## 1
Amino acid sequence: MKNILVIGACGQIGSELTLQLRKDFGIQNVVASDLCIKAGSALEEGPMETLDARDRNAIAEISKKYNIDTIINLAAILSANGEKNPSLAWDVNINALINTFEVAREMKMDRVLVPSSIAAFGPTTPRENTPQETILEPTTMYGITKVAGELLGDYYVKKYGLDVRGLRYPGIISHETLPGGGTTDYAVAIYYDAVKFNKYTCFVSAETRLPMMYMPDCIKATIDLLKADFDTLKHHANFNVGAMSFSVDELAESIKKYQPDFSIDYAPDYRQAIADSWPDSIDDSAARAEWDWKPAFDLDAMTQDMLKNIRIKHEKGLI
Ligand code: NAD
Ligand code: AKB
């Protein structure tokens, strides 16, 4: 693992993960790539390439140019946007993924990491403490692509000996880059609107409870799994990872501890049905046993850090 290509590096997770990878592996050894590169991005400190990952030759060319031995593929169309354009979600989430696996296989790369999601679960999955091995019958196109992606990853491990790793992230909450059109986006938007307007209208109901994770834990989980010894892994492309679970009501109460006159109201839309199809909480004992996963942030610790950082952005006129 010397030279890493991050695909989808400009998104919510990639924009922070890439910078941390460069701290760990060296700035010149981590290539950031995305469909369109934003001028002035912090990622410009190191190598950057425009890449549409649906183009297999383009992945191969960049991989050869930088002698890539590890790919992290974060390119995706998330759940809410995926319901607006299911064929695009399939195209990006599956075709770009199999391109990545094929290039990695042909070039005999060390490993590929690709995230899955709690969206791989569906209404028939046990909701509480959802097990590692369970029913996978999602009802969104995004979830269908995540199940297929997990199965493809495990297939490449078994058939070709390619080292593929993946985690079922819960909703990821962060303050650097806005989320890219998912159902859990409310858990980020609430903090921005709390700082800007002292109130928020939520697109899912007060009782909606989902598994969530703060970005520092997401980065840690991803890099810990990336670095784990292959021989200790019994699972490959589908690790459950949990950190916290809360309802929107509990999230609002957490904000009120630090901003007492904050208020919230509710206007559920099509994303309510998506949220209702996902688990309440996750059993991540396989990740804890196989690569020592342990989250650091709980709801109130996250709330304090989110409010602090978003207030700084607001004071600087950035939001
Ligand atoms: P995001 O939407 O913020 O970023 C995805 C990036 O992929 C964007 O920068 C986009 O421009 C890029 N992209 C889209 N199509 C592309 C293509 N054809 N070629 C190259 N790049 C392309 O997503 P994210 O939240 O950073 O998610 C990263 C991964 O983590 C995805 O696999 C997602 O399913 C998974 N995940 C995210 C969350 C979350 O809450 N953020 C939760 C569970 C799983
Ligand atoms: C979404 O809401 O689509 C993502 C996810 C949980 O995969 N944040």
Note: The pocket of nicotinamide-adenine-dinucleotide (ligand 1) is lined by residues 7-8, 10-14, 34-35, 51-54, 74-76, 78, 92, 96, 115, 117, 169, 171-172, 179-180, 182, 184 (CB under 6 Å).
## 2
Amino acid sequence: MTLNILFAAGAARWQDYQMPLREGLAEAEIDANLSLDLDPAEVDYIVYAPDSDLQDFTPYTRCKAVLNLWAGVEGITNNATLTQPLARMVDPGLTQGMVEWVTGHVLRHHLDIDYALARQDGTWDRYVPPLASDRPVTILGMGELGAACAQALVGLGFPVTGWSRRGKAVDGVTMLSGDEGLDEALSSAQILVLLLPKTPGTVNLIDAAALSKLPEGAVIVNPGRGPLIDDDALLAALESGHVRHATLDVFRVEPLPADHPYWAHPRVTVTPHIASETRAASAARVVVENIRRGEADEPFLHLVDRDQGY
Ligand code: NAP
């Protein structure tokens, strides 16, 4: 039987995904009609991105699963017309990209590379940066990305504390959960990395009270989601010097408006949501594997828990 697979992740992404998906389907010996345009009643699987024009899933009566190309799913979890299973993206390329971005920015602040760059004036000032073992790092959100980043940082010698909803163990990491665990995780965080999803339970988690629990001079690195942080509270903490620097990749409004105070702030680094990107070659393999599983009556990988919102 030929499967009808709708690519509903936009014409621009179609250029990148068409070939890897076709090759993956052929390798898996799945006979498929992959297209940007199919009769909804005939569609078996939807390859999706939340910025898609497709927002009403009601006519897709035969669809067995919606396979999202993004890791973050806050743009689709509240869609009441979506009754089919929703799988999110867990892609080795995405994970590797995040590990590199987080490690790079943590090392920048750990080694105070900015200080060296600002001292290119003939001054022979032999300041000695601490070793990683003297720089506790906390990661909030210890899922696919947070756990991989934690392990890379542990490998470099940083003492890493992780905080997650269920506090699942991760090798070499002090794992915490709950409100008390959060207080403890914040109080030791010389560098705080945010890798939580945006859900009702995580919005504004980093508010004035949370910021006040960080050690004086802490650094925040946020590649998770913009709404995790109360922006006014962060700006106040930067003004007072309680937070030394914030490196922010994600924002409440994207693109970050040109007049937003973050752009001009001397102790904020803005990157334009580039911490990590889904890579077509590896992501296509994940999509094909889920279609194979669907056809073999095996459980789908990376299913979203719609009640939890991630
Ligand atoms: P994931 O595997 O679903 O992990 C999410 C983690 O957050 C889990 O450890 C989970 O706890 C924890 N969590 C969720 N709600 C919580 C709560 N209320 N309290 C405490 N912990 C909570 O997600 P992922 O693949 O690592 O991705 C994380 C996020 O990164 C994505 O949702 C997305 O927002 C962001 N992201 C950004 C970029 C970028 O380029 N900037 C790229 C990709 C992803 P449990 O382990 O207990 O479930």
Note: Residues 71-72, 94, 141-146, 164-166, 168, 195-199, 201-202, 223-225, 249-250, 273, 275-276, 310 surround NAP (CB under 6 Å).
